[in-house]
Amino acid sequence: MILNRRTLLASAAALAAAPAFADAPAEVAPTVRRLSPALDRIIAPGAEVEVIATNIKWAEGPIWVKDGGYLLFSDPPANIIRRWSRKDGVSIFLEPSGTAGLDPKLVREAGSNGLALDRHGNLLIANSGGRSIDRLDLRTKSRTTLADRYQGKRFNSCNDLAVAQSGAIYFTDPPYGFTQGDDSPLKQLAQNGVYRWSERGETVLIEGGLTRPNGIALAPGEKRLFVSNSDPKSFKIMVYDLDRAGLPTGSRVFVDSWPTASRPGSPDGMKIAADGTMFCSGPGGMWIMTPEGEKLGLIEDGAPIANCCFGDDGTTLYMTSNTRVLRLKLGINGWRA
Fold first, then answer.
1. In whole angstroms, how far apart are CA 190 and each of 149, 172, 175, 238?
2. How far from 167 is each of 27, 119, 302, 331, CA to CA, in Å?
């Protein structure tokens, strides 16, 4: 997923091709900025943001594994999935996490990006380098490719994913894994798409008009799908109304106004709690919003916060932020029954 490392480049072509990870600003002590008293229900006054992991090339795609009580998160440019637990700290869980042996002149993010769990407890991987959606058995680490093509053409660099109760997987496919972005000779598809894969093996394009589709999340009840667009020319989060088959019937802009637009970060990963509270990456950090899009607060780290997940007993927010991972206790339970 994109960082404001990408926005630091001058030309549009260089922007699309993607920037040096070291260009991201240095982190500072993470803090919570309160924009509304309504935030107190979600994050208690005085709650502190902890740093639990450091020295990561670019932290992404966190997911909490209940069976075992540990966090997994991606490091796409390092081609590693890392594991963190209170007992053992940080270790390497899977290397390569994506695809090994790729030409760095063509592929800049060979590893995994977004992670999720399916309803059977398997790990689902948005494989940026492999240009696919993969399923991994957490016990044996046996990997299966679920989807790597649309209408016979290879995906770009699968980025993030959300899993429906039916087992369907919604995922985004921008060109960020390519060194040359949209101009890459590896790019086969005209669009940077949002797709839906069903357990029947069918892949459907549900959005082909976003320039940089990135983070993705389903609302409780699965009647709405949210997708972030991380193109600096059009920072926004879109919302799609879904029918009973899980396909969009309409769409509209959910948020496109960012009071901290000049600060590090972009619309990126997001998670939605059981009560509808939204935790969305954006310029400035991780935004906490109501289901209607009202901004209640902002978690700031002085650097782009790419994604988040709920963990422990569901009342902890884990965030991947540039070169480190953050943890914050919540006053709500993010997990859905």
1. 13, 14, 11, 21
2. 37, 7, 37, 29
pLDDT tens for each residue of 5-29: 333 333 333 333 343 344 445 557 8
Residue 261 phi, psi dihedral angles, 5° rounding: -60, -25
Helix, strand, coil content of the chain in percent (nearest 5): 5, 40, 50
Encoding tokens for residue 211? 């320039």
What is the pTM (predicted TM-score) of this model?
0.91
- Amino acid letter, residue 236: K
Residue 63 is inside which H or E element, if any? strand 60-65
CA 288 – CA 275 distance, rounded (Å): 13
Q: For the structural domain made of 12-20+30-329, what CATH number should be given?
A: 2.120.10.30
Whether the Cβ atoms of residue 317 and residue 332 lie closer than 8 Å to each other: no
Calculate mean pLDDT across residues 188-204. 96
Question: In the chain, how long is the greatest CA-to-CA distance?
Answer: 53
**Residues across the chain:** 337
> Mind listing the pLDDT tens digit for each residue in 92-151?
999 999 999 999 999 999 999 999 999 999 999 999 999 999 999 999 999 999 999 999
First to last CA, the chain: 28
DSSP class of 27: P
What is the rounded (10 degree) CA torsion for 10, 11, 14, 15?
Answer: 70
| Residue 316 to residue 6: CA distance in whole angstroms | 29
pLDDT in tens, 31-49: 999 999 999 999 999 999 9
Q: Where are the domains of the chain?
A: 12-20+30-329
